[in-house]
Fold:
Amino acid sequence: MAETRTEALHGNAEGLDIQAPEAILGALADAQVEAAKAVRNAIPSIARAAEIIAGSLSGGGKLAYAAAGSSGLMALADALELPGTFGIQRDRIAILIAGGDEAFKTLAGGPEDDTEEAATAVASAGIGAGDCLIALSASGTTPYAVRAVEEARHRGAATIGIANNRDTALLRQADTAILLETPPEVIAGSTRMGAGTAQKIALNMLSTLTAIHLGHVHDGYMVNLMADNMKLRDRAARIVAAISGRDREEAARLLEKSSGAVKTAILLAAGVDSAEAARKILEGTGQKLRPALSALGHDPEKRKPLFGNDHARTKK
Structure:
């Protein structure tokens, strides 16, 4: 195999093992910063990919992640956080990692070459028309990731490829290619470092922009979070209070009335008569809070609470 950028030796790596610990850590930190900068060049393709994913999810489709090794861990981290952070249903997300459940114990390298496992995983997840699959591979040539894209495309799904080397099989096979052209690793080929960092950042950006398209973010608030623990219930109450201008006690009461739905609670604070009526308003606005508030007479361009402090003190 020809040497790729992710396998090349970093220019500052010579003599690394005999340098002082602080110097080694400085080189590693600088390399991470340089890798992170590579994501900026991919912003246009990340933006296109987010629109595609949002279209699939809003149309009732599923989002699948397919990867092996370190890239699989990056995919796993992003996928698992989507329900809690943005309220995307868990059954709408599929995580396909080479080696299956055993990968979480050993992360063995062999399964990344298993193309049949990849095809079977895509089929078993029911990926097809209306769905979207994201495949990740630092090298861009990992057989598992490439085969997952091929199988998903064959079944009619939209496909997104994320790789750290240009002009690779994964980027050529995917409908939308995201190139994260990170510098060579300080430890040559150890793509859990710079390449993995860039993948993590790109996935964070991709899923967050997708959530914004779906109406799950209002200003800087995650208004579709799943409040299933004490911390998140407190966060939900603070979000309702901040947007509506109600006090925390009233915000908590409205959340209880809305079965924990933040957007519904905010609409109740804005004067909607019932949780059911609030849900119907949100259905009419594609689950987007800003146009729902606008329909109730709240200026969506203003960054002030719905009610002033006097209202918050007196309204019961």
Notes: Confidence is low (pLDDT under 50) at residues 308-316. Residues 194-213 form the longest helix (20 residues).
